[in-house]
Write a structure and sequence with these properties.
The structure is a homodimer of 249-residue chains. With 249 residues, chain A is mainly α. Chain A has helices at 12-17, 31-47, 54-60, 65-68, 75-87, 102-119, 124-128, 135-150, 155-177, 186-196, 203-207, 209-213, 217-243. Chain A binds a DNA duplex (19 and 19 nucleotides) through residues 53-55, 63-67, 69-70, 74-75.
DNA sequence: ACCTGAACACCGTTCAAGT
DNA sequence: ACCTGAACACCGTTCAAGT
């Protein structure tokens, strides 16, 4: 029943089959694989994950493509490692969340995640492509789940809240930075496009042209986030009314 | 200021530069480009957009790769056409929305969109990668905006509601069907993985392992959608309280 | 006028030969 | 034991030669 094939890079099985700590072989410095990932991320930020070439990466490292294969088994593995590397950049100040409500803390966490994605726009498709289960992905998931649980969410609702928030942030970022809209000034282009449409055929779109495009994306992100949190607030109230039990104090 | 380069396939400029009607040249039947897209979609459903090869497509059409270039300028253009083709599959029964509330109608629309994405799981990255401004994308946007406007939403709120819903559906689908989780049985794998984690290091994730993975994804989709609609309902109430004016009847 | 075989530059990947 | 030049199969794309 269980397949004997190599696990898909980025999948749970793949991460589980990796050496637990960053592959310290013998007494050599651990610079190797980290430096490759760091350089790959820098190149991806410049040209995009699609356009990144192993030859390009090898050149930047003053090496050859064959050498890269001593540290990972192909480009897919490299991209999975880079994706988790980016997740490791998300910084949520833990001291802040102490005195704050779950809602404030969730807002800070979602915006920290979104901010990190904004710093690596060309890498967003990497993050959106799969459920992040690398070490840094696990850490982020754990932190967010703990946040909800510690504020009285049931396990069930906490799990759903995490998934909904994660989907929203990555979904938003990929539409914001997808390959179809690489330039920031595309909003203006898009507005002109909506305006130029036949008002008879597209009355609503033409009327909403400005509102569809003029809103700063940061503000738009906040708006959708507030919608989700409003909904979560109601779900939590419903839950505590029906069951009357908080999971923990 | 304006660049003289070829517009990016899938961008507004690119769509605008295309022949408005499906390129009827002379009196030849319009089967050509449509048949290519149809065949490409079938192949993408089987092997994924990444693995689709122009040679593979040409073979399936009993032709050569060079012939394909007579109908579009490269693979990116083909993929943009396929993406809009998929959007054209979304069917929202218009008669249904007549007697329904905006909330019911929005639910039907979101689930129709989600259902279409579920029928083409391997093509989802195509849809998530950019703002859809092809003819079918425009049609869907127009329909949804009209829905909100006709139920008293302000233009501003309607635009944001559309964006939030669209982000949610595509964001959800890409996480559901991304290349990292191609198989349906991966949920079970993922649960085993969460359970196998060190409970000391990941107490919340281990505790929520079942809730993170056992929920049917269809139900999970509904849950997040309800959250969004709850939030929209509140935003609409706030809006009508403050302004006191409905846009139209 | 339209189609296409054959080539081109380049990709990810492999391996035998180096040190 | 570790590295890597050089090759391999194959990709998207082009163009001169066919009909």
């Amino acid at each position: 029943m269980a397949s004997a094939t190599t696990p898909v890079p980025g999948s749970p099985d793949w991460w589980a089959s990796r050496p637990p700590a960053p592959t310290y072989r013998r007494g050599r410095p651990p610079m190797d694989v980290d430096r490759i990932i760091e350089t790959a991320l820098k190149l991806i930020d410049e040209v995009g994950a699609q356009a990144l070439t192993l030859r390009m990466l090898a050149d930047a490292l003053d090496s050859g493509t064959a050498t890269l294969y001593r540290h990972f088994n192909g480009k897919d593995e490299l991209l999975a490692l880079v994706a988790d590397r980016i997740l490791g950049e998300v910084r949520v100040p833990p001291e802040e969340s102490a005195g704050k409500s779950w809602r404030e803390a969730a807002t800070v966490a979602a915006e920290a995640f979104h901010g990190t994605l904004c710093r690596h726009p060309r890498a967003v498709p990497l993050l959106a492509a799969q459920v992040p289960v690398g070490p840094n992905g696990l850490r982020a998931r754990e932190r967010l789940l703990t946040l909800f649980l510690s504020h009285g969410f049931s396990v069930r609702l906490a799990a759903r809240a995490y998934t909904a928030l994660g989907h929203y942030v990555t979904g938003f970022a990929i539409q914001q930075y997808g390959p179809g809209s690489p330039r920031p000034e595309d909003q203006v282009h898009l507005r002109g496009y909506y305006r130029s449409l036949d008002p008879a055929a597209y009355p609503a779109t033409a009327a909403a042209a400005d509102d569809l495009t003029s809103v700063p994306l940061q503000e738009e992100f906040r708006f959708g986030l507030e919608l989700l949190l409003d909904g979560l607030e109601q779900a939590r109230l419903r839950e505590s009314q029906v069951c009357g039990d908080a999971v923990e104090r």
